[in-house]
Amino acid sequence: MSYAQRPTFAEIDLDAFTRNVSAVVAVLPAGSHLIAVLKADAYGHGAVPLARICESVGVEMIAVALLEEADELRGAGVAVPTLILDPLTEEQTEIALRSGFILGISGPEGLEIVDRIVKRIGLGAHVHLELDSGMGRLGLIDDDLEAAAAILGSNQAIAVDALFSHYACASVHGDPLTGRQTLKFREMCARLAELGVRAPLAHLANSAAVMQGLVSPGDWVRSGLALFGGEALESGSSALEPVMTLRSTIARLKEVEPGSSIGYGSTFVTRCRSRIATVPIGYADGYSRLMSNRGEALVRGCRAPVAGRVSMDLVTLDVTGIPGVAVGDEVVVLGGQGQDRISAEEIAEKMGTIPYEVFCMINSRVPRLYQAKDGSMISGSRVSTRAGETT
Ligand SMILES: *Cc1c(COP(=O)(O)O)cnc(C)c1O
Predict the structure, then answer these.
(1) Residue 335: strand pairing partners
(2) E strand spans, 219-372
(3) Which of 158, 168, 206, 325 has the least C-beta neighbours within 10 A?
(4) Which of the listed residues 129, 222, 228, 357 should we mutate to test ligand 1's pocket, taking the one with most ligand atoms within 8 A of CB?
(5) 54: number of CA atoms within 13 Å, CB side?
(6) Is 264 marked active-site?
(7) Neighbouring residues of 249: CB distance < 8 A, sequence distance ≥ 6
(8) What is the CA(353)–ligand 1 centre distance, in A?
(9) Cα distance between residue 150 and residue 5, in whole Å
(10) Dihedral of CA 178/235/360/14: which sign?
């Protein structure tokens, strides 16, 4: 690594991401297309580099949650049509429309805002209209359909490019709500058609629904987690490849007597003569304090348990059983080393959460390095090197 930056970083395998995109596209039925969901900085993987890959392999659309996220991609020169999923304020809506972003409209209020702005500024709007088929969060409910149809009927400048909905339980194989949501969505689409609202596209499936094969031919899908190699199905073992490896190194190594206390709160006391490695990653980087005395990291291809509490900037590992450990040794906190691998799912299980949150927690203190095709490393767009240049 040629950068004078901290030895704790997330390595992003761009080729694995590319293969995952192909793998997801390959399981889609005829006429279906992928909307790559790159919200939350591509689930912590870095939205700009991954959006560029999406662009280069012909992904038709990118979805993000926020206007700010769409702006970041646009600012970086990404030209793929971009859908903003979450509700925007009136001010933000105007900016989004002037920027030509596609708006996810999740209620009559959002539609009224678009109606007002379109009339005021004289620009057309492209929207994807969300229907609440059972998630209970965003989207029009039955009682909203007539009001929405009335607005759309009176304003030809608002183009409804798609109707969409979101599954609540697709990660659980065979959950009955999923089938009910599909039916409810079709019913609501039919009702809207009676009211004069038709859209050329529909999309319902997230990664889990794609992996379950729940996509109707011609429907588009919104997939995020699967593209990063995350396991979308609770029972699943998909063939997708993890994209992120979170690495650090041993900064301090000591051999301590039995009965030595390690870390805050003295929650770990050595039972025998032990070797304790201190690694510069902590909860301020997104390595959760819930991993205290619970997590494991890979050192020389072996599992080293977290000894004591994870602190803000550091974690201590018990490397007693691992031969030859030395200061400077690579530590893999998330990802593979040797024959072993620590998955986001494993960490999530220990934390009592889901892999999505594990990825999103790894924050901007952790540089992202992108492995290019020739094997060299490229620093992420948000990361400045010591010299001050941003790549
Ligand atoms: C985040 C999100 C997705 C992507 O979900 P994955 O499980 O990561 O595939 C799809 N649709 C909506 C509305 C979302 O908010």
Answers:
(1) 342
(2) 220-223, 244-249, 252-256, 261-262, 268-269, 274-279, 296-299, 302-305, 315-318, 330-337, 340-342, 368-371
(3) 168
(4) 222
(5) 30
(6) yes
(7) 7, 8, 279, 280, 328, 329, 330, 331
(8) 17
(9) 57
(10) negative
Q: Which atom of ligand 1 is nearest to the CA of 85?
A: 13
Enumerate the H helices of the chain as residue ranges. 14-26, 39-43, 47-56, 67-75, 90-98, 108-121, 145-154, 176-194, 207-211, 344-351, 355-361
Nearest atom (ligand 1) to Cα of 356: 8
Closest by alpha carbon to 41, among 18, 20, 16, 10? 10
- Half-sphere exposure of residue 343: CA atoms within 13 angstroms, side-chain side: 15
pTM: 0.94
Q: Which helix (H) or strand (E) holds 201?
A: strand 201-205
User: One-letter amino acid identity for 31?
Assistant: G
Of 39, 167, 283, 287, which is the active-site residue?
39
Residues in Cβ contact with 34 at an 8 Å cutoff, skipping those fewer than 6 apart: 21, 24, 25, 28, 59, 60, 61, 220, 221, 223
State yes or no: is 373 an active-site residue: no
CA distance 29 to 93: 34
Report CA torsion sign: 171, 173, 176, 182. Answer: positive
As a whole number of angstroms, the distance between CA 74 and CA 89 comes to 20
Each residue's pLDDT, cut to its tens digit, for the chain (391 residues) gives 455 889 999 999 999 999 999 999 999 999 999 999 999 999 999 999 999 999 999 999 999 999 999 999 999 999 999 999 999 999 999 999 999 999 999 999 999 999 999 999 999 999 999 999 999 999 999 999 999 999 999 999 999 999 999 999 999 999 999 999 999 999 999 999 999 999 999 999 999 999 999 999 999 999 999 999 998 887 766 679 999 999 999 999 999 999 999 999 999 999 999 999 999 999 999 999 999 999 999 999 999 999 999 999 999 999 999 999 999 999 999 999 999 999 999 999 999 999 999 999 999 999 999 986 666 666 664 433 333 334 4
Q: Which residues line ligand 1 (CB under 6 A)?
A: 37, 39, 85, 166, 206-208, 222-226, 232
Q: Based on DSSP, count helices (H) and strands (E) in the chain, helices before strands.
A: 11, 21
